[in-house]
From TrEMBL:
It comes from Sphagnum troendelagicum. This is F-box domain-containing protein. It holds the Pfam family FBA_1. Residues 80-126 form the F-box domain. Coiled coil: none annotated. It comes from the Eukaryota.
Length: 446
């Protein structure tokens, strides 16, 4: 009998040890996730509850799926006897649905969970359900932290309408570098001060690599755009325009284009910009294999005045050449950002003067190449924004983000409405802002 008691104690100890990582992480999050997927009902610490209608019995009406949930819970906690012997495959599948910001907590619980993101079932789950992690963008980060190789950042999540702190990256390779671009779950870093090589990393897996040297020096390229092939996970990086040299330098306002191909692991010089056109922006948008950017013509003397004529240009990624799409932009006196929204190329015009100014959005007619006014930002919203930071597009919505505050204004192209999103105070140390969109992907390889 004493031996049986010891055996039972050993079993209980093993179950407790098996469950300890789950308890350390906080199993209530799993219950919350499962309850959300079940859907419906008011929530409490014990899951959804449904209250009987007035005039009926006062007892709570608990649906069958909630009864099943409570069957493997004791006093609001998950039952050790069940969760302590949870099959490995089921555990991997459940943890694969944990939101990305909390994934960094998982890998610090135990060695078993540290290797979780490399397990076949975890990778397969994410490959088959690419939408389970939301995208974040734009991105704010702390420049000072990068001096030590620590990347502290936050991203705007359109599904929760909040700024969320994302797991920090502590990689020595990032020292002195800044976020330059990103695509398909990867981020691209560059140090324009010493014109070092680009670093590409996956913030989920913490894997990274330094790209080979470029063919020419790129101190401050006008365009650095990463393009990801979702089917093959191969990527390209397009660098074009260069304006960070003295005016008497041969590299001043360079018209060259250089492209990195991850399949070939090489940089190749590509076609130059059309004659008399120079890139004047660091914003670009990819649509049907064309990378659309704004450009500026050489100043010409007309009626004793120097005028700047802007144009929309596009880089054909497959053919490696630039084309001029249209010779006029809606407003040459303001900063203009090309975006892709609801299947259309649009231009968001940021006024240079905040006094009695209007933010406008124009849409391009793909046939006539003419611009038509789509909407005007309400003056009250423009006043709240102050100076604009960046503009990004998610599906049918255009987000305009303030430069020095966390104010976000959104235009819904489908409904034709403007609104200010609920503010969420993020850490004020996130000083720099970039239009980079980050979509967590555990299967993306630098």
């Amino acid at each position: 009998m004493e031996r049986d008691e010891k055996k039972n104690n050993n079993k209980r100890t093993m179950k407790r040890l098996a469950l300890s990582p789950l308890k350390a992480f906080g199993l209530s999050s799993f219950v919350g996730l499962l309850s959300l997927k079940s859907g419906g009902g008011a929530t409490s610490s014990h899951g959804p509850k449904f209250i009987a209608a007035k005039g009926e019995a006062s007892a709570e009406v608990i649906p069958e799926h909630v009864v099943k949930v409570q069957a493997w819970m004791q006093d609001g906690n998950l039952d050790m006897a069940i969760w302590g012997v949870l099959p490995e495959e089921l555990l991997e599948h459940i943890l694969a649905y944990i939101p990305f910001p909390r994934l960094s907590c998982i890998v610090t619980v135990c060695k078993r969970w540290q290797s979780l993101i490399h397990c076949p079932l975890f990778l397969q789950t994410h490959a088959e359900n690419t939408s389970q992690w939301p995208s974040y963008g734009p991105v704010r980060y702390n420049v000072k932290m990068l001096e030590n190789g620590e990347f502290h950042w936050s991203g705007y999540c359109k599904f929760t309408n909040t700024w969320q702190k994302l797991p920090p990256l502590s990689l020595p390779c990032l020292a002195g570098k800044q976020l330059w671009s990103g695509a398909g779950g990867l981020l691209c870093f560059y140090n324009r001060d010493n014109m070092g090589r680009l670093i590409v990393c996956n913030p989920v897996t913490k894997r990274w690599r330094e790209l080979p040297p470029m063919n020419q020096k790129w101190r401050w390229p006008c365009i650095t755009h990463m393009i990801m092939d979702e089917s093959t996970k191969a990527y390209k990086i397009v660098m074009a325009g260069n304006e960070a040299y003295p005016c008497n330098s041969s590299s001043y306002r360079s018209k060259s284009t250089e492209v990195y191909d991850s399949l070939l692991d090489t940089w190749q010089l590509s076609g130059s910009l059309p004659k008399d056109l120079y890139l004047d922006t660091q914003d670009g948008v990819l649509y049907n294999g064309l990378l659309y950017c704004t450009a500026q013509r050489t100043r010409t003397e007309m009626s004793d005045e120097l005028l700047a004529h802007d144009a929309l240009v596009a880089y054909d990624v497959q053919r490696g050449m630039w084309i001029e799409v249209c010779s006029q932009l809606p407003d040459s006196s303001a900063h203009q950002t090309p975006l892709l929204c609801r299947g259309h190329i649009v231009i968001v015009v940021e006024p240079l003067d905040n006094d009695d100014a209007e933010g406008r959005v124009y849409v391009l007619d793909a046939t006539t190449k003419n611009w038509s006014l789509l909407t005007i930002m309400p003056p009250s919203l423009h006043k709240k924004l102050g100076f604009w930071g960046v503009c990004v597009a998610h599906g049918n919505q255009i987000f305009v983000v303030a430069d020095t505050s966390m104010v976000v204004v959104v235009y819904d192209m489908g409904e034709g409405t403007w609104q200010e999103l609920p503010s969420h105070q993020a850490d004020s140390t996130f000083q720099s802002i970039t239009p980079t969109l980050f979509s967590p992907d555990v299967n993306a390889v630098p």
